[in-house]
Each structure stands twice: as structure tokens, then as C-alpha cells.
Amino acid sequence: MDIVTLLQEAAARAIRDKFDREVEAAKLQIMQTRSDFEGDFTLVTFPLAGALRMPPQRLAEEIGNQLQAEEAVVEKFNVVKGFLNLSLSANFWKEFLMNFSPQGQKAGAEENSGRKLVIEYCSPNTNKPLHLGHLRNMLLGAACANLHEAAGKKVYRVQVINDRGIAICKSMLAWQLFAQGATPESAAVKGDHFVGQWYVEFEKHFRGEYEAWQKSEEAQRLFAERRKKEQGQQEFFKTFKNEYFNKYSQLGRQARDMLIKWEEGDPEVRALWAKMNAWVYEGFEQTFEKLGITFDKNYYESETYRLGREMVEKGLEHNLFYKASDGSVQADLEDVGLGKKVLLRSDGTTLYITQDLGTAHLRYEDFGMDEMTYVVADEQNRHFKVLFELLKRLGEPYADKLYHLSYGMVELPEGKMKSREGTVVDADNLIEEVISEARKNAAERGETADISPEEREDINWKVGLAALKFYLLKVSPAKWMMFDPRESVDLQGQTGPYVQYAYVRIRGLQRRAEAEGLLKSDFSFDAYQKLEAVERQLLLGLYKYPQLVLQAAREYDPSLLANHLYFLAKAFNKMWHELPVFSAEDPAARAFRLQLSSRLGQSLYEGMKLLGIAMPDKM
RNA sequence: GGUCCCGUAGCUCAGCUGGAUAGAGCAGCUGCCUUCUAAGCAGCCGGUCGCAGGUUCGAAUCCUGCCGGGAUCACCA
């Protein structure tokens, strides 16, 4: 039985015996004792004082006496105001330690077993490389996927790739016009960056064209006719840019022609499109691999953008939707405060929302999931509210188990990332940067004697990526976060490498124990009776670990786990400095501390793995 | 304007299903490597928990109203 439940029931019995009153055990408030007081768990007696007509302090003392006398696990207690602080016996903790497993959450997650979850956590465009925002998205999604798996679900990881549209046509056109047949190989540039360069090239030429046009008579006439009062030329042409692209621009016309040809299935355009997208995927794959990100299935917009029409038409038949006078099909969501939403254009073509309806259904056909989660930035909150409502009205079987993990944007010290202003932090560059920071640090420390260069490089990758991933995952998903480039490569303090370091120390202890022939079956700590404060702190931290994994999964919040792992590592580092292991005079103490370290090491390893972070053995 | 999110130390963040004196890291200042890895440990400095009410034995946490910042309200994706 869980120790908290056990204490609650024991306290309820004590109250019955002493005061002849029945209280519901589950309602008794037991929390972890604050670390600045002595004790492991605390019963809060204030809420009982009224019903039992007794001052909280006396109540706490009476219950404490009874518990100490009747319950073997309660070793001693102290009372501060109405707080009854209970210290559990060393025997209890030793037994707990022997039975502890970092997989313990599985026992608490029977209700999840067999449930199928589809989780979507990346939706890149194919006209430019991945950036910092994608990183937060992918790391959050991958961690949540792992957490739900650990909590007993069958998880399917998917991404949706926005591989069509005007943006990729811009890259294609620029490549056609200016690249003279260059390829990623010939230019020695990673495929996604290569295609991104042609997108930038298009924008550059387009800007030049636009600026030249602004001096033309036509442009000046339009400016004179259409300007709003007080509006200067610069300001006017900034807002006019879109219209220029669609109506006047040569490059704009060519790009749009290309899009039309693509839609018509023009073989030449399709071939170019396929070739350039293949370059991009090659590049994406490399980035995913560096990050350890995987997907079970990719959904391509080019294959799904027409889906959903049938669903909408079916909904129309059942009067869930209606046809507007202009011929478009709409849903009336006024009753749930979401207004009206167009589902099919008046020309009958599909929209973003239609496509998402279709993709959701397609995934049901693919996986037959019970639940589906989208990891998408919070700017799309409304879109997903609408989408979920529509799926519910359409009676999709998983519709009551849809979740939008809405995460906040990543901001830079200079403000929001803007691709037009070149303030985007590129994912590959960032990865390269954290790894070279790890290399630099390792070189400065100079402890490379018994480590081969290959092993050293492997460690540098693990350390660098841990810094980056932990940095992005330790913040609550819902919050907008500030990305400080200096802090993200930091290897000291509240960081991934800090947690790794504690683990490496534990591995060192284990290697030595092995070398000295300890950890054998006759190796016992029965005689260890007095637990130190740090040891208790660590035991309590382990006690909470499986619950935290479940909570982090349930709340889709990996930061809960990240922060707990940091707490565990911190407690271990404290113990490292305060208590000797091998030079402990008491062999039982040595045995106990080795066991405790070992279980802690497993937890750190497993916990970081759930976050997508690998642990080195040495560093 | 409607809806939603955020406001905690100089900076970045925990804590929010109500509990004890509000915690970390970074930055600044002090100490600690002849003992299991100093990517570490210990200490100092630093807070009207945006403001004002309310509920409660008890509020950073719950409720209401303000103030400040942001997102979103397309037949774009």
C-alpha cells in the first residue's frame, strides 16, 4: 500500500480510538514535510480542530503519540503549531529502497493500458530549414510521447509536412531562374538550407523588383489614389506589398503560374517540386537524427489537402452544416462562442480546417486511436477549438479525447523571431553551437586521459544536446519563454549537464564497487539504522518520482519531470559532499549509500530518457 | 471591442488541486580540490508574489474588479 494512504488510515484509526470520531481517511491532509523541519510526512490538523473541538497543537500531539505507539513505520514525531511531522523508520525506507523501480509508474497506470494515442508534434514547411520554434515543438512532443508510453499507452508519433503552396513555388522559381543547375551536393550545403537559400533569393529579387516598380508612373498613380490620409510612400508600399505580388509583380505572376501548374499536375513542375522537396527531407532527416527525434508516419499536405470534403458533405446532409447564399459551406458555432466557420469555399475547394478534418479521420483509419494530441504553438488555440468542436459534431469516435498541447512562443532578447528580418535561430546552427561549447569545456577541463577521441566526441554530443534540450524543456509549455543564447549553451547550474554530472558520479561509484567486488549477494545494510537528512531527502525524491512521471504525462508537462530530476541531482550532489561512501567507517552505511545511489542513477537515466536526453558514463 | 494566455529577486524560471519563515539557477561577493570526477559544494547579497477588494483558522495559490504585456477573431496555412 502507498505510504500516504497507510498514514491516512492509521491517523483515522488514531482519531477513532482517542476521540471516538469517524473521519474519512482519504480526506486527511498529508504532505511532504518541509525540508527545514525534521520529519518525512506531515499531517495538517487545522481542518480537524473545529470538528473535534480541540486546539490543533494538542490534537497533533495526541495523534502523534498514538501513531508512534501503534504503527511500526512511525519512528518518531514532532509538533509545530498544528503540523504533525512524522519520521518514518529506517526499516521502512530500506524496504522501500529495495522495492523501488523507476518503472514504478506503470503500476499506477492500469487504466491506460491498451489505449492508443496519436500525437502530432512537428509541422514544418518545406521552403526553409527548421528553427528554434520547431525545436521546442519537437522536444515537447517527443517528451510527451515518451511520457505517455511510460504511462502505459500505445503511442503513434506523426508529423504533418506542409509541402505545397506558394512558398515552395518561390524557392522552385528562384532555383529555376538563378541556380544554373546547382544542387546541395554541388554547393556542399545541407538540402533544407539549400532550398531555403533559394527562398531567400526569391525574396531578394522580389524586393528589388518591387522597389524599382515603386518609381514607375503606375505605382505613383496608385499611391496618389489609394493612400490613406497622413500615409507616407514607404508606409503605403509596405501595406501594398501583397497586392503588388498578386497583381503587378512579374516574379509573383511566375510563382503563381507555377502553383497553378502544380495544381494541374504539370509533369515538369511536379518533377522539380519532388526533386527540391527530396532535398529538404534529406536535410530534415539529418536534423531529426541528430536530435533523436522519430516519427511513425509523415502526413504530407499535398496528399491530404483535398481530404475532408466528404466529411463536410456528409455533415451537410445531416444538417450539421449549412450552405450559405454564396455557395460556401459553413458551420454555425455561435452557440459555443466560436462564430461561423467556412468549411468549403464557394468554388467548392477545401481549406486548412477541411484538410485537418480529413487528416484526423485518415489517422483514425490508420491507427484506430482512442485519443489524439496536437503539439502546436498557442497562436492556433482558436483553430483547434474549432477543429475539435467540428470533429465532435461529426461524431468521430475519438472526438472527446482530443487535446491541443498549446505551447508558448520562444522569444529572443531582441524580440520575436522574424524570418523576414533574419532574426531566426536556425536549429542546425544552434545544435552545432552547443556541441562546440561542450567540446570547449571538455578541453579546458582536460581530463581526457583514459577517454578515446571517439568516446570524447560522443560525450560532447550528449552533453551539448542535454544542455539545449533541458533548457527548452524545463520551462512550463504554456509559457512564452525567453531564449538566451548564452544560457542555452551553459553547462553549469540548473542544466542538463548538471543532471548528467550527478549520474556520472554515480557511475563512478558503481565502477569502483564492481572493481572492489562489492554489490555481491551477501552485501547487506540491515545494520544501517540511522538515516541522514540528505538520505531521507533522496528517498522522498525517489518516492515521488513515479507519481511525477504520471502527472507529467497526464498534464502534458515535461517540465515537471525535468525540475524533479534536477532536484534529485542536486540532493545527490549534496550527499556526495556531505557523506563518504567508500571511506564510511560503517560497512552497512557504505552498502546503503551504494544502493541508494544506484537506484537514483537508474531514475536519472530513465527520467532523462523520457525527456529525450541521453546520459554519458563519464564526462 | 469579444475570447483566451501571461505578470513571483537585477535576469531566466520553479512553486498555483489553499498550509509552516516564498525557492532554484544566472549575474555580483566569500570560502572549499594531498580523500569516491570542483560541469561540484557551502555561505553572503537580492522579493510590497502587478494593484485593490473578497472567501478562509490560513492566500503567491481560489473568487471579483482594475492595471500592464501578448495571442487570436480570413472563402491564408
Task: Explain what this protein looks like in three dimensions.
There is one protein chain. By secondary structure, this protein is α/β, with parallel strands linked by helices. The protein folds into four domains: 3-88, Arginyl tRNA synthetase N-terminal domain (Gyrase A, domain 2), CATH 3.30.1360; 117-307 and 357-420, HUPs (Rossmann fold, 3-Layer(aba) Sandwich), CATH 3.40.50; 308-349, no CATH class; 427-610, Isoleucyl-tRNA Synthetase, Domain 1 (Orthogonal Bundle), CATH 1.10.730. It is built from 23 helices and 15 strands. The strands form four sheets. Strands 7-6-5-11-12 form a five-stranded parallel beta sheet, with helices on both faces. A four-stranded antiparallel beta sheet has the order 1-2-4-3. Helix 10 (233-247) runs parallel beside helix 11 (250-264). The protein binds one RNA strand of 77 nucleotides through helix 2, strand 10, helix 16, helix 17 and strand 15.
List the helices and strands and how they pair.
Elements: H1 3-19, E1 30-32, E2 41-44, H2 46-52, H3 56-70, E3 74-80, E4 83-88, H4 90-99, E5 116-120, H5 132-150, E6 154-161, H6 166-178, H7 184-187, H8 191-213, H9 217-226, H10 233-247, H11 250-264, H12 267-291, E7 297-300, H13 301-304, H14 309-317, E8 322-323, E9 329-332, E10 340-344, H15 352-367, E11 371-377, H16 381-393, E12 402-407, E13 410-412, E14 415-416, H17 427-445, H18 453-473, E15 481-482, H19 485-488, H20 496-515, H21 533-554, H22 558-578, H23 587-610
Parallel strand pairs: 5-6, 5-11, 6-7, 11-12, 13-15
Antiparallel strand pairs: 1-2, 2-4, 3-4, 8-9, 9-10, 13-14
This protein binds one RNA strand of 77 nucleotides through helix 2, strand 10, helix 16, helix 17 and strand 15.
